[in-house]
Amino acid sequence: MKPSSILSVATCLLLPFQIMGQEPDNSHEQWKTQCGTPTGQERFPIESYEELPQFVKPDENDWKHVKGTCLSWGQTDVRYAKTAVPMSRTSRLQGISGWRGEKVAAQAVVWTKTGAGALRYEISDFKGPHGQVIPADRFETGFVRYVMTDGLNSDGGGCGHRPDHTVYDSTMVADCIDPYLKEVSLDEMNTQAIWLSCRIPEDITPGTYKGRLTVMDGERTIGSLQMNIRADEHVLPAPSQWHFHLDLWQNPFAVARYYQVPVWSREHLEAMRPLMERLAAAGQKVITASIMHKPWNGQTHDWFESMVTWIKKLDGSWEFKYDVFDRWVEFMMSCGIDKEINCYSMVPWALTFRYYDQATDSMQSIETAPGEPEYEEMWTNMLKSFASHLKGKGWFDICTIAMDERPMEVMRKTIAVIRKADPDFKISLAGTYHPEIEDQLYDYCITINENFPEEVLERRRQEGKISTLYTCCSEGYPNTFTFSPLAEATWIGLYMAAKNVDGYLRWAYNSWPLEPLLDSRFRTWAGGDTYLVYPGNRTSMRFEKLIEGIQTYEKIRILLNEYRENGDTEKSRKLEEMLSSFRIQDLQNAPASAAVGRANAFLKTL
Amino acid sequence: MKPSSILSVATCLLLPFQIMGQEPDNSHEQWKTQCGTPTGQERFPIESYEELPQFVKPDENDWKHVKGTCLSWGQTDVRYAKTAVPMSRTSRLQGISGWRGEKVAAQAVVWTKTGAGALRYEISDFKGPHGQVIPADRFETGFVRYVMTDGLNSDGGGCGHRPDHTVYDSTMVADCIDPYLKEVSLDEMNTQAIWLSCRIPEDITPGTYKGRLTVMDGERTIGSLQMNIRADEHVLPAPSQWHFHLDLWQNPFAVARYYQVPVWSREHLEAMRPLMERLAAAGQKVITASIMHKPWNGQTHDWFESMVTWIKKLDGSWEFKYDVFDRWVEFMMSCGIDKEINCYSMVPWALTFRYYDQATDSMQSIETAPGEPEYEEMWTNMLKSFASHLKGKGWFDICTIAMDERPMEVMRKTIAVIRKADPDFKISLAGTYHPEIEDQLYDYCITINENFPEEVLERRRQEGKISTLYTCCSEGYPNTFTFSPLAEATWIGLYMAAKNVDGYLRWAYNSWPLEPLLDSRFRTWAGGDTYLVYPGNRTSMRFEKLIEGIQTYEKIRILLNEYRENGDTEKSRKLEEMLSSFRIQDLQNAPASAAVGRANAFLKTL
Question: In the prediction, which pLDDT does B161 show?
């Protein structure tokens, strides 16, 4: 699809991305200069915003049998298009089930032939056995909103320069869940989804809790949808207790820029808190820390600054300060993320190390590579100082010196410098599987298309080491792009269980592009690659589905433990058999939703 | 004079100055790109260099009576033009006199109708009474070289945007004294001067010392000039003992750039040492220190960086480091300049204060003005820290917080902040005479066209305060531009004696433009305004003549003291009468050389 009607918008959006380089401030100006603000609204909206225009017009033929305004439960793994008829049959009653402590979700859909001027909704308390109640305010709800995205490359991956409307289609996809928006105006032949989710209280009586979602147009009730939530006997522990090792890299610099607050100020931490608490509630284990300037050479709209202060003194010696690092780590710990601190990077993408130079009273850079005396001198100094600081803070044992994939020789030389500075430093790597250095790596994350040898995985687990898989732009599927099938996000959690690894890593929780609420496309990756959540602490369907998979991973682990303890080998075998059916290559032909659906159905039988 | 032949050179030179802004590195590239290197030589020559071309062709008519190659003593206050016949009568014997310890100078001139392929010179030992000798190696000698300059404005001053060949003439003037050049090739109808100077040893027997300068063309002797130096009974003390308060601002950053050495490195200090020792030998009293970034908003080709390290810590508090400041001050003291440290500036030309910001790991700036709380908070912190550091170093009593002229209200507010931080801080100002704040100023320098009230001057002297006069671009005369009559430099010293002030200030000892050996023009001031000495530790005729005037000032002071001690009121009266004849307005009609000549003649009668 290459509708010419979108070109003007796409071209306009294109410019700032191409021009901005890595200067966020300039790029804002560029956007204004080139395009005005595309939707006429203020830059960087937080509570209220207007989406980019929908460019796919409704097909009257599709809508001809629709009468008035319709309402139905939908599925949580479908992105309902704005101008298409969402379904042919409606469903007014939905039963969902979950463990106590588990987050469950549903999606309702409204579609209208005639338009609706003031669409809004209300959710009731959910009433269960013995007069117990899940109160309405336990639900997180929101209208589902649309964001601009693109698509995969012709080679099936998601890496490559964008936005480029000569290569990629642009589409508006449902993704963001907006709790601020209380009322929506729908044009003729428009569809609007409503998302609701709820963490079932751990302490309620198991049983069925009944409630409803009522949808109105102004004062007029369109209809009500009934929902029965069955709370299972089982209790899913709090996310902090989950085994699943979730590692979504955080970008505090994007938040400071988007919220236009001074970096590391009280306002900055306040802006980040709900976002990072949301991440903690998904089971995040790792604090992403940058210990030098631009560990990824500014690959994000807001590049990472060093959280460690590097000062080269007049006499040539180094001075390191950790005030920023400490503030960030302590803040993240206060949000509930406190299991690991991964420090990037001794081997940044560009081997350039910036520091404040006292002699010239300016920022200077050294270009040096592992194996060079200057590199070793600099990093040995830094790591010794850092180790001492971490030990003082009691963080040494949860801290890793973190690398991205680099040539073997470079990684070996880097590890040698680390070991020389402090042999007990933990090291992490996200990259290809390398048997040569595997034993050096405390936290080892390999690509989802690779496998740890089984005996290695077992040994690593016994040694208390972490072994996980990752996806990035390379994987067409499964993935969490804004255009990825939503069930793939869930599928990921199940696959981690199938592969018996500890968890999953993705490089960007919130490395927002210029206007993430409007346009998820960015520079050299498929749309949505750089973030899973939106400004204003808005979650996304993708992120919610990812959490669903993580929860399933935890439930499987708990069940397997139960069976093992009870000697219930039959159930174990069946469960493992079901898991073994999860194969990446199958996603080529069968949608992830089918596999996930089967797994969920199976789990209900246990 | 606007010879069209110079336009191509002038235009070429023009470009880098206009384009460069304040980025020396870029500007070098600009020069190359626009013009190639004008003389085809490497950038920033030190030992050997080629001058820009002479664009005034010899007038054959003038030269028609000249035969072969001629040789004569010239005068030290004449810039002999390259292509003009320097004089009509030759003088082979010259007598000069000086006190023991005084530096004396002479200029020889060679001119040739036919050209000279390998002009060189030798100086003999100078033989005096009782077999005593001033050895040849006591003489500093050099061929006089030509540099591009411009001229005064039509309003008679020297301030205004340059180079601009539509407004200012460009001329090549004799100024630099080059000790490296051992042999010169002269074209037909060319003139070449040779400068020689010598500090008469303090410990030799008074009397006449006879020697000669021999000039050769290759192996052929052109001739010899005889010189008798009469060493007076009087002894001029070493420059460090001079009362004359010389304050020529030093620019270490220009030296680092020109010599292409890292700022504050050992190589940098080595490059500066002969230059600063030369300054000390002229009687310099003051170390120029920059305590913030760009105190003069980058008015020099190489702007002043802060010698104090300003760090704004994450918690908002300030940290100051003095490593650079200490290195500079200690270096200057080791060169013999140790009487005063003037620290610029709490009231810079642009009220912008740059610092290293830990939160953003970048250089940041605050814009704040005296009277604002932020300004007071910042400077009170800095000055308290600075006072404590200076006291630890034992420098507090010789250090001043230094200002340039600012509106009275601004200066008052600034002084209030200083007094609040430490009431004992010394303060200096170079600006207009303001009776309102005069008593607050330890070192007060006013423009040469103003006068301190006599009783104020007397009181200040009794209080141990310094009172001096300055010239800058505003004064068409007297001045030390590369086109100023050389006697004006000497005249200045005499005028300071006449005005009974303590000395003289000029804003630039060595704020070199891009290529100071080639072109003395710069941005918004008359040619040579920004420097008095040249790279390679080359002195200038201007600087030597300035020293001559300072020595005369010292001699007058010593003589007046002698007369006072001896009760010789007649000589005192005559001397003061002679001095009272020094009036700036007279320079409009009578050249400075006449007044200086009269004064010298008079002094010989005493």
Answer: 85
All residues at 6 or more sequence positions from B560 whose CB lies less than 8 Å from its CB, including other chains: B572, B575, B576
Please give the share of chain B, as a percent, with pLDDT higher than 90.
Answer: 88
For A102, how many CA atoms within 13 A lie in the half-sphere containing its CB? 25
pLDDT digits (tens, 9 = 90+) for A2-25: 333 343 344 334 333 322 233 333
- Structure confidence at residue A277 (pLDDT): 98
Judge contact between A97 and A232, C-beta under 8 A. yes
What SS3 class is residue A367? strand
Say whether the ipTM exceeds 0.90.
no
For B59, other C-beta atoms within 10 Å of its C-beta total 12
Q: State the greatest distance between any 2 C-alpha atoms of chain B, in Å, as a whole number.
A: 81
A vs B: CB pairs below 8 A? 61
User: Parallel, antiparallel, or unpaired for β B133-134 and B93-100?
Assistant: unpaired
Given CB atoms, is B289 within the 8 Å cutoff of chain A? Answer: no
Our CA dihedral for B443, B449, B450, B454, rounded to 10 degrees, sits at 90
User: Which residues of chain B have a CB within 8 Å of the CB of A262?
Assistant: 359
Q: What is the predicted pLDDT for the residue at B30?
A: 36
Residue A559's Cβ-side half-sphere holds a number of Cα atoms within 13 Å equal to: 23
**pLDDT score for A28:** 34
> Is there a contact between A359 and B309 if contact means CB atoms under 8 Å apart?
no
Beta-bridge partner residues of B469: B446, B504
Residue B39 has a pLDDT of 66
Check if the beta carbon of residue A404 is closer than 8 Å to that of residue A431.
yes
Decide: residue A54, CB within 10 A, 0-12 exposed, 13-18 middle, 19+ buried: middle
DSSP-derived pairing of the beta strands B466-470 and B503-506: parallel
Q: Are A518 and A51 in contact (CB under 8 A)?
A: yes
Instruction: Report the residue from B315, B321, B362 with minimal CB separation from A358.
Output: B321
Give the tens place of pLDDT for each residue, A452-496. Answer: 999 999 999 999 999 999 999 999 999 999 999 999 999 999 999
Q: Collect all residues of chain A within an 8 Å Cβ-Cβ radius of residue B361.
A: 293, 305-306, 309, 324, 354, 356, 363
CA distances from A485 to A2, A196, A596, B467 (A): 20, 19, 12, 83
Mean pLDDT over all residues of chain A?
Answer: 92
CB contact under 8 A, B363 and A362: yes
Instruction: Please indicate whether, in this complex, the C-beta atoms of A361 and B356 are within 8 angstroms of each other.
Output: yes
pLDDT at position A405 is 87
Strands across the sheet containing A309-312: A318-321, A309-312, A352-357, A362-367
Instruction: Find out whether B183 and B135 touch, Cβ atoms under 8 Å.
Output: no
Q: What letters, b where the CB count within 10 A reaches 16 and e where it falls short, cover B197-214?
A: bbbbbeebeeeebbbbbe
Burial class, A506, CB count within 10 angstroms (exposed 0-12 / middle 13-18 / buried 19+): buried
Amino acid identity, position A381: N
- Do B347 and B411 form a contact (C-beta atoms < 8 A)? yes
The overall average pLDDT reported for chain B is: 92
**What pairs with residue A144 in β-bridges?**
A177
Task: Tell me the nearest-neighbour CA distance from A270 into chain B, angstroms.
Answer: 16
Answer for the pair B405, B430: CB distance below 8 angstroms, yes or no.
yes
Q: Identify the pLDDT of residue A38.
A: 58
**What is the spatial distance between Cα B123 and Cα B219, in angstroms, rounded to a whole number?**
15
Mean pLDDT of B240-249: 98
Q: Is the pLDDT of residue B44 over 80?
A: yes
pLDDT of residue B16: 34
